[in-house]
Amino acid sequence: MAGINSLGGVNNYSWLFNTNNKKQDATAQLWNAYGSFQNNAASSLAGLTEVNANLKAVLSSYEDAKAAFNSEFKETMEDLSKSAEKVKGYNFSVEQEGAITTTTETDKDGNVTSTTTYSKDLQAALDTVKGFVDDYNSAVKFFGDHKDVSNRIGQLATTFGDTTYRAKLYDSIGLTVNSNGSISINEAQLAETIVNDPDKVSSVLGSNGLAGKTENHISFANSQADKLFPTAQAMLGDQLDTAALYTGNAYRNMAALGNMGNLINMMF
């Protein structure tokens, strides 16, 4: 019977038999208390069920988001690593004769159109650079899109976006650095540079250039891989604490309801 003290507003047995000592009054009072606690317990139980359901949904969403992030992170780093490795060891020397061919046509109205074609070797060199730049831009976008998820991701967004300090050097071969750190290609200028100064292209993009720098970024990112996405507790701490609070309250009221039922059984 010690549990009776858990009932709100019920601190001893005196309320069961008031001054007129009529059992029916005590019984009526008892049933009023029972109804009150029944409502409280039912409400708390419903609240508990709702909290648990919501928490499960939140945790499920968290796991889905974490899995999606980790999958995209891995794919982005792997693609960029492959293209950086290819650029780093690429021989940009091509046969100058016939590397770039420009033809012009004039229609019956006097409109002139120009078409530029590249040799097979030059086109392959351009495609190699384009693939690398596309993968680099994907990494810049990936970390930029998720930079607010955690400080570590924000740091990587800054790291991969930090191409502006070499903007003039990249621009000299036909690569333009945008404000967010992504890179755009001036194909005509890049093609001319590959044909006329392949060593410069190798220097700017190779082991001591953007590809080498990129590999350092990738290595740093991979070393942080298991720490990039916050833990559930870090992201959902308030919700988890709230769930625990409501769970505790619900169970206390359920226990109170049980004690009230026991009391009734003892009286009749």
Question: Could you describe the 3D structure shown?
Answer:
The structure is a single chain. 67% of the residues lie in helices and 7% in strands. It is mainly alpha-helical and 268 residues long. The chain has a domain at 71-231. The protein has a two-stranded antiparallel ribbon with strand order 1-2. A hairpin with a 5-residue loop joins strand 3 and strand 4 (183-185). Residues 1-31 and 246-268 have low confidence and may be disordered.
List keywords for this structure.
268 residues; mainly alpha; two-stranded antiparallel ribbon; disordered C terminus
Please estimate the helix content. 55-70%
Going by helix content, strand content and strand pairing, the class is mainly alpha
Question: Mean pLDDT score, rounded?
Answer: 77
What is Rg?
36 Å
Low-confidence stretches: 1-31, 246-268
Helices, by number, come to 9
Q: Output the helix-strand order.
A: HEEHHHEEHHHHH
Strand content: 5-15%
Shape: elongated
Whole-Å distance between the termini?
Answer: 16 Å
Biggest sheet layout: 2 strands, antiparallel
Record the strand order, biggest sheet.
1-2
Q: Using DSSP, what is the number of strands?
A: 4
Task: Give a quick rundown of the structure.
This protein has 9 helices and 4 strands; from the N terminus they run αββαααββααααα. With 268 residues, it is mainly alpha-helical.
Q: What layout of secondary structure does this protein have?
A:
Layout: H1 23-88, E1 100-106, E2 112-118, H2 120-145, H3 151-161, H4 167-171, E3 175-177, E4 183-185, H5 187-196, H6 198-205, H7 210-223, H8 225-228, H9 232-267
Antiparallel strand pairs: 1-2, 3-4
Helix pairs in contact: 1-2, 1-7, 1-9, 2-3, 2-5, 5-6
